[in-house]
Design brief:
alpha+beta; 5-stranded antiparallel sheet; 5 helices; 26 strands; about 15% helix; globular; binds heme C
Length: about 475
């Protein structure tokens, strides 16, 4: 619009604003509501622009990084009609506003794009390979993890507490007997399944599960437990607990954020993740197992060179801390690094290289905000806290991750694949050392993806609602 017309409108708009502020009607800290009340009049209801510029396009007059956008909001451009909001909006909430603008903008831009949603058995295209998606196993309810035991044999967990064998693509008609009882409320359940690196020799299979117990007060409580056992003739046998927290660390059953992923490094150490159980403070507290990645030997003994092994105040199994809900854990086949993918709050999902004794910052620093649009933390970085390798705003809800090491897709070799729940995306991520150098959405819209893993046949297996799909190359 013509600037002169804008200047005529300006007093009206500012008048409205100041009366809104005078009545103390400003919503308390929710970015979407603050936006609707203070910004929409000029920037448009959906950030599409009106008398003030659109915030959905790629044009940023005053800089496109988070700090520049925050500065535009704080200081305004009074001579051009953009008020300075620094006095009216607390700094913390300006941070939430920046996340909100980024989120709305990314959602809009995604809405403009088309993503591949492959139908069964038809060729779909991606940047490096054409592929087909076929149902491999169905009749499942909620598959959570999959592991291959040999060329023909696999094993599947279902969240509701069932463990199935798959033999040459045929699932066992009944779940295995003898599997430990699990809590299945909320996000709790039977979680990861991973064979020992020497499975062919020793037969050990590891499970992560939400372990239901009773608190001292008699309440149902649960927490992530790690168990190993063997499968003999359709029965889970020789079950041993490898990690179990003290009962006082267990919290009310049926809750959130169990983590529950397992990975082995090259030396054979076992890593597993425990989420913060919905209480961010746990992640910074070294006396509790929540919000951590732990490292133990394959039989549950604690390595004496763990970072806090000699600290009498800390739990000796802790490897890294400041995690929210790591539901992905994988070893980079090139570097041997262990990577975790974790759910942030609204925005701020992360991919991290988890290193010994390091603090990944939750809940002190984050790129996300609360689900209701209020600020979690104004800080995205702090001395002594690690930055993620990459993060996602808006959230995609990352779950399982695995590097592809098969032969069927040569251009995908050693690339990381990530399953996402909320965004329903299968992502390919190219990692070089500690850097993410490329990302692609292979497909989207087949439902929430819980996990992805390469099979011994070089196909890629994806855990979808009710079924497992197999991805193979196509002309
Ligand atoms: C009275 C009208 C008006 C209101 C209300 C207003 N803005 Fe603006 N805003 C503008 C104008 C005009 C510009 C463009 C300034 C320029 O041309 O340099 C602008 C620019 C911006 C920019 C910089 C954009 C860029 O391209 O770099 C941001 C960010 C921004 N506004 C955010 C907000 C937020 C957040 C609010 C609410 C808290 C808000 N604005 C409320 C008029 C307004």
């Amino acid at each position: 619009m013509h600037p002169s017309r804008f200047l005529i409108l300006l007093p009206v708009v500012l008048g409205l604003l100041s009366s809104a502020l005078a009545q103390n009607a400003r919503p308390k800290g929710k970015a979407n509501e603050t936006y609707a009340q203070l910004c929409a009049a000029c920037h448009g209801k959906n950030l599409e622009g009106a008398q003030a510029p659109s915030m959905l396009d790629d044009v940023w007059i005053a800089g496109s990084d988070d700090e520049s956008i925050a500065k535009s909001i704080r200081n305004g451009f009074p001579e051009k009609g953009m008020p300075a909001w620094g006095a009216a909006i607390p700094e913390k909430e300006i941070r939430a506003m920046v996340i909100y603008i980024r989120e709305q903008r990314a959602l809009f831009q995604r809405g403009q794009m088309t993503f591949t949603k492959p139908a069964d058995s038809t060729t779909a295209k991606s940047r490096l390979h054409n592929y087909k998606v076929n149902t491999w196993v169905d009749d499942l309810i909620e598959p959570w993890s999959l592991a291959f035991l040999s060329a023909d044999q696999a094993i599947v967990t279902e969240k509701r507490g069932y463990l199935y064998q798959v033999d040459k693509g045929k699932i066992s008609p009944r779940p295995l007997l003898g599997v430990p009882v699990v809590d299945t409320g909320g996000q709790a359940g039977l979680l990861d399944v991973v064979p020992h690196p020497d499975y062919a020799k020793n037969g050990w299979i590891y499970l992560a599960l939400s372990d239901p117990q009773k608190s001292v007060a008699g309440d149902p409580v649960s927490l992530t437990r790690i168990v190993r056992g063997k499968v003999k003739e359709g029965v889970w046998v020789d079950s041993e607990t490898i990690f179990r927290a003290k009962i006082e660390h267990y919290v009310k059953a049926g809750g959130v954020h169990f983590g529950g992923r397992i990975a082995f490094d090259r030396q054979g150490y076992l890593y597993f993740s425990v989420g913060d159980r919905g209480n961010g403070a746990n992640a910074q507290d070294l006396t509790v197992p929540m919000g951590k990645v732990h490292r133990i030997f394959d039989d549950g003994r604690v390595p004496t060179d763990n970072p806090f092994a000699k600290d009498p105040q800390a739990l000796p199994t802790i490897w890294s801390y400041g995690h929210r809900n790591p539901q992905g854990l994988a070893r980079d086949p090139v570097t041997g690094n262990i990577l975790d993918a974790e759910h942030g709050p609204r925005g701020g999902d992360e991919l991290n290289w988890v290193q010994t004794g390091k603090n990944y910052g939750w809940p002190v620093i984050t790129f996300g905000m609360n689900y209701d649009g209020s600020t979690w933390s104004e800080a995205t970085a702090k001395e002594g806290m690690e930055q993620p390798m990459t993060y996602w705003v808006p959230s995609i809800a990352p779950c399982g991750i695995n590097f592809y090491t098969g032969e069927q897709f040569p251009q995908w070799k050693n690339h990381l694949f990530l399953a996402s729940l909320a965004a329903e995306e299968l992502r390919r991520i190219e990692v070089k050392g500690d850097k993410v150098i490329d990302q692609e959405i292979i497909f989207k819209g087949l439902g929430r993806i819980r996990h992805v893993i390469g099979g011994p046949d070089g196909a890629l297996y994806v855990l979808l609602p009710k079924r497992i799909a197999r991805i193979t190359p196509s002309e």
